[in-house]
Amino acid sequence: MEKFCAGWWSLLGLCGLLLPMMAQAGREMPTLSDMKMCADAECSHPILIARARQDYYPQDCRFIPLRQGQLVYVYAMLKDRGSLFWAGSVQGSYYGEQEARLGHFPNDLVEETHALMPAEVEVKTTKWDFYCY
């Protein structure tokens, strides 16, 4: 659990809220990739900011819904067999009072608006990358 809180989830202050819930509910899902590219070894710094080109309503809990025009903070880019997916967070009024939603999304649904840091660090994915709650 400690390593889980060292990543980009901790930046959003969710570890104190999510860990008790995860102990009670949730499930591990199949991995999309074994590796990801990040700005740092903990994937705690955003790589870029992107804007959703269209609405996206996923059928899988590993993914986040997107609304056209919504900003997405990208923290990781999956590699190898999962290279079509990025991981990030969305915020804003679309989700009401909720601070942020985290998960994966198809990278072709967004366009880069601001490059922030290069994704030069290869990081092994963990079960927490694909955990559903």
TrEMBL record:
Domain SH3: 45-115
PROSITE patterns: SH3
InterPro entries: MIA (IPR043369), SH3-like_dom_sf (IPR036028), SH3_domain (IPR001452)
Record key words, sorted: SH3 domain, Signal
Cleaved signal peptide residues: 1-25
One Pfam assignment: SH3_2
UniProt keyword Cell division present: no
PANTHER family: MELANOMA-DERIVED GROWTH REGULATORY PROTEIN
Protein name as catalogued: SH3 domain-containing protein
Organism: Coilia grayii (Gray's grenadier anchovy)
